[in-house]
DNA sequence: GCGACAG
DNA sequence: ATCTTGTCGC
């Protein structure tokens, strides 16, 4: 891992060419993994907890869940989020005894200043299909999304469609979906929708968020 | 040059 | 991400 921002940007530029973001999934996914990270402090130096929850499709029952505790050694810089979260998430992924068919990341894929967001990084690193579902806008612009579940408008950045603003529930703000690696726009959108049957965010993200939060609380209190 | 800026 | 009160709605 890079030690500073300059090295990180260089690494992103070197790896971005390995990204495949226009291919459909090789087969219908059976196991989908949600990943998330919780922080003790907003800045670097504090403890962090990474969590991965694998769900069965289509029933969304839990297949396996793992966590990993560590320290945050990279500051938050827009565009460099992956360098904060990838290490802890990889250590958690190593504990899995099952191999997910796709990773659902908390953040962006190719909808990124250098087309290499967190989902691209995790996908290229693990060799697994990965896409991102973000809660707030980052790069690009989009037209208002019709207030209907499943409706979406393209997220455009520098003339390219890099993702979609997707309404997962009527009456709630849209989420932002973008392919990361070995998956395309349609499969990413379809999966996000299948995972967000009741709430705004995919069930994978919600479960991983809770698990990482619980794991961090536990780590901070016991030791 | 001035803001905006995933989590 | 995280820190937090009250409030609207099913």
UniProtKB/TrEMBL annotation:
Enzyme Commission code: 3.1.21.7
Single annotated GO MF: RNA endonuclease activity producing 5'-phosphomonoesters, hydrolytic mechanism
Catalytic activity: Endonucleolytic cleavage at apurinic or apyrimidinic sites to products with a 5'-phosphate
Family, similarity comment: Belongs to the endonuclease V family.
Name of the top EC class for this enzyme: hydrolase
Binding site for Mg(2+): 36, 106
Lineage summary: Bacteria, Bacillati, Actinomycetota, Actinomycetes, Streptosporangiales
Superkingdom to which the source organism belongs: Bacteria
Location relative to the cell: Cytoplasm
Pfam families in the record: Endonuclease_5
InterPro entries for this protein: Endonuclease-V
Cited HAMAP family: Endonuclease_5
Protein's recorded name: Endonuclease V
């Amino acid at each position: 891992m890079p030690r500073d921002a300059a090295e990180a940007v260089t690494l992103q530029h070197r790896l971005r060419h390995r990204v495949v973001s226009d291919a459909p999934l090789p087969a219908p996914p059976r196991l989908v993994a949600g990943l998330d990270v919780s922080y003790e402090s907003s800045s670097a130096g504090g403890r962090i907890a990474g969590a991965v929850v694998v769900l069965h499709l289509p029933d969304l029952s839990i297949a396996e869940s793992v966590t990993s505790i560590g320290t945050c050694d990279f500051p938050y810089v827009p565009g460099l989020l992956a360098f904060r979260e990838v290490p802890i998430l990889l250590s958690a992924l190593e504990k899995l005894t099952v191999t997910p068919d796709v990773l659902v990341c908390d953040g962006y894929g190719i909808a990124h200043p250098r087309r290499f967001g967190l989902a691209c990084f995790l996908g290229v690193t693990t060799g697994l299909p990965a896409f991102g579902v973000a809660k707030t806008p980052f790069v690009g612009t989009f037209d208002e999304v019709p207030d209907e579940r499943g409706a979406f408008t393209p997220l455009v950045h520098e003339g390219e469609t890099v993702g979609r603003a997707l309404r997962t529930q009527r009456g709630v703000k849209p989420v932002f979906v973008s392919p990361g690696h070995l998956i395309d726009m349609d499969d990413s959108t379809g999966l996000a929708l299948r995972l967000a049957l009741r709430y705004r965010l995919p069930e994978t993200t919600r479960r991983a968020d809770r698990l990482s939060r619980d794991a961090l609380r536990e780590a901070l209190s016991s030791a």
